[in-house]
Design goal:
The structure is a single chain. By secondary structure, this protein is an alpha/beta fold. The chain has one domain: Rossmann fold, CATH 3.40.50. It has a 7-stranded parallel sheet, with helices on both faces. The chain is globular. 42% of the residues are buried. The model has no long low-confidence stretch (mean pLDDT 96).
Length: 197
Amino acid sequence: MTMEPIQRVCVYAASSRSADAGYRKAARLLGEILGRAKVTVVYGGGSSGSMGALAEGALGAGGRVIGIMPHFMNDLEWAHRNLTELELVDDMHQRKRRMIEGVDAVVALPGGCGTLEELFEAITLKRLGLFFKPIVLVNTRGFFDDCVRLLERCVEERFMDRRHLRMWTVVARPEHVLPAIRSTEPWDPDARGFAAL
């Protein structure tokens, strides 16, 4: 369990305006919770969908929000214009690297292939002992059920070690995110020792 204060959290979220409104509602609530707790939100910098709702929730609660966005997305006017800070980077790879640097946890909200790619990269970095912080999946509408089943299948088929199931925590609601981060057991410093089977 971590006793260190939670100061900075990376949140992966979707930009879709077409997904069920419940996803945006949960994203906004998570932003409000993090903002009230004075936790800086680092996210992809977008203004629409769950990304926009997350930022609005945090900013409305007096929180600090840092967006990380490639230049081409900013050129397309996808950026949220009222953030505490918008950092423009060269490409998607640099964006992912900057989002995760120096954070106390990673939180994944439901989303499409971009969100899932970010989540799986964080899990991969943890498996390889390059990232040691908590990873929390917010399972709004049971969205991550199939994803978790697939990861469990990876373990069953011996592509991953059973210890790898401890790399993430699944919570049902945004209210459970901060308690989940605080209760996460430290990740094994010898993660590379069992990264490959």
